[in-house]
Design brief:
Two copies of one chain form a homodimer.
Chain A lengths: L1 H14 L17 E2 L11 E2 L5 E6 L6 E5 L7 E3 L1 E2 L4 E5 L7 E9 L2 E3 L6 E4 L2 E8 L16 E9 L4 E9 L13 E5 L8 H4 L3 H10 L7 E5 L17 H18 L9 E6 L1 H12 L6 E5 L17 E7 L4 H13 L4 E6 L6 H11 L8
Parallel strand pairs in A: 14-15, 14-16, 16-17, 17-18, 18-19
Antiparallel strand pairs in A: 1-2, 2-3, 3-7, 4-5, 4-8, 6-7, 8-9, 8-11, 10-11, 12-13, 13-15
């Protein structure tokens, strides 16, 4: 029953993020540059230093072109205006928050992607994406440091009668020292997304590379697979059944990873975390199987209460986070209550972000140094 | 100079594939099924058993929706017709050839992707794709066999001052037997494509998995990186300079692969092949540096003549292929001439295919068993 409430919490959080701040805007500074998420050679969309986004779409005979931002286009529209040359142009009414945003075009009533941008799987479809440069973007930048690999595996799944895909981040040097074994974080995407989200939108591999290069974390493996979350429509989450995914994860994927990668294959060296609906999955599975995971992370994905934890000795860390525009009091108070009950809990609130990937990039950056510390 | 001619050859070949066969078509059989390249849960586009493709696009206020097939939409248009419910529907005028085809929509004069399909990098943009089931599709099907991995690496490139991406196919069992070393095939995409093409469009990893499971080939590693081919527009290929890519490949990527993967790091165990403009690159680089590669493959990418080969003792195999609707006589005769000169040359013609990925999937399937045989 509680997991339904968690689902509700993040839907309400999402609904709370529908509007752009539009009042008393300063003059727009004309220093627009192509978004870093554009396709090669594409000039538009552009972003300026204040966080305004400007779009240009070619559709000479169209009668209406509207840009809709946010998961499922839920964050309001920016209508574009037709110029004499047949292009449609428009700028957001206000600055966007720092970080990554999904968006889509509505062209004469049909939903399409912006041909200017790369596509990212969200809202159960490949969506357009735009990046507002963040003041702290350095921690997920592509730098001249040793890079880990992102390994696509196809693992056998008897329960679903197919080979399933997962991505495995292996830290720099993984292939060189064949005697070394690593702890593993199982990291879940949110509703509408899939196993590509944490690297494509989240830059999880670059976050790890940079922190390892700086000596800030103990290197570990990250495994990302599809959480089977998208069989339900948003709002119908109470019909979600965790069992098929739990079977794939625990009975099929983890044994495959422990056989085929050099893992430390035991509970103290295994973590699970997830964003949004992936947090709901994390909570359900970690509580059902405390023998499998020792470190838990919910990123905009609800909270644990002390009563949830049956055997405190099995829990090494609970990490709870969200954006400051979500429900920061909820995660902060939950961590205090857990600590009061003698559980190692940490809360983190991402400043000035919503239920979006900048919150989750920062959350991974905060979570990673806390994992597997006592080993 | 010769490489310009090769460029010309494949452009002429491309131009020869612009029309669909449209005469005396049989009645359309109503057994349409969703294309295997559709996004999850999407019904359209659909394909029937004859190879007709049927499209449906939602754009209620649009005045015109046209589907254009082929690289860069060069293979003619299928105008869609508006139904009462605001959807646009249409079926190709004739059957399409077996295999994978790029396409795009033109909606009221603007070029967009079909929201029903996955996207594939071709024509220097992410394009829509559709799959016509082929009579021989079994060799690239996802089967219940041991699967190799596709490893995304980011390798340092001093010459281009960045970390560059490559994908590395490692055969099943690569991570288990740490004493085993493997030969390597460097495999290039064509103009307008990038390092994602051989796995996304070509299913190179599945082709390898299946052949290894059947014991048909000696397992080897495949490395795929961006050939830097897209800085020139089609038709301006004579301005293409191979040197920057040759430096990245020979001085940066190969040493990185030989350091970080368990390769057999010598000329007899190194092959290079490429499709279309990647064949042009293969020819230029293999001839310039016969000390690096021993096996050469040009897939719809021109031919070698006996005079090109300065030291026959260094060449273990030359493989030449194309589709039967391209220039089959050219590759067949070139192989005969090479054999006459004492060089181990093999030609292959893919039946009833054009300058498209079905030709290249089949070519890889023919090439793989011939590689590294004498080791």
């Amino acid at each position: 029953m509680k997991r339904y409430l968690i689902g509700l919490v993040f839907l309400v959080t999402l609904a709370g993020s529908l509007c752009l701040a539009q009042t008393n805007q300063p003059a727009i500074i004309e220093d627009f540059k192509p978004s870093s998420k554009n396709q090669p050679g594409q000039e538009y969309p552009k972003v300026n230093s204040q966080g305004y986004a400007r779009f240009q779409v070619v559709a000479p005979q169209a009668q209406s072109v509207v840009v809709s931002l946010g998961l499922g286009g839920t964050r309001g529209g920016t209508p574009l205006t037709k110029a004499d040359d047949g292009t449609w142009m428009g700028t957001t009414a206000g600055p966007l928050e720092e970080g990554f945003h999904y968006y889509r075009l509505t062209v004469d009533g049909g939903v399409f992607n912006d041909p200017g941008t790369l596509n990212f799987y969200g809202s159960t479809r490949w969506e357009s994406g735009i990046e507002i440069p963040a003041h702290d973007q350095d921690f997920y930048a592509l730098k001249d440091v040793p890079h880990g690999n992102v390994v696509q595996i196809l693992f056998p799944s008897a329960s679903t009668n197919t080979s399933r895909r997962a991505f495995v981040y292996t830290p720099p040097g993984y292939d060189k020292d064949q005697s070394k074994r690593y702890p593993v974080l199982y990291l879940q995407h949110g509703w509408g997304e899939d196993e590509t989200a944490w690297t494509n939108q989240g830059h999880a591999n670059l976050i790890m590379d940079n922190m390892i290069a700086e000596g800030k974390i103990k290197p570990f493996i990250i495994v990302m697979t599809y959480g089977m979350t998208n069989d339900v429509k948003m709002g119908g989450l109470k019909n979600f059944d965790i069992k098929p995914f739990q079977t794939v994860l625990l009975d099929e994927l983890i044994p495959y990873i422990d056989t085929n990668f050099r893992t430390l294959a035991n509970q103290p060296n295994r973590a699970m975390a997830g964003l949004s609906m992936g947090g709901m999955e994390t909570k359900t599975i970690t509580l059902a199987r405390p023998d499998v995971f020792s470190h838990y992370g919910l990123l905009s994905g609800g909270t644990y209460s002390p009563e949830d934890i049956k055997d405190k000795s099995k829990v090494k860390l609970i990490f709870l986070s969200c954006g400051s525009f979500e429900n920061p009091d909820g995660v902060t108070k939950a961590a205090v209550a857990l600590k009061g009950a003698g559980i190692n809990a940490v809360s983190y609130v991402s400043e000035n972000t919503r239920h979006e990937f900048q919150t989750w990039r920062r959350s991974l950056h905060e979570l990673a140094p806390l994992l597997f510390k006592d080993k």
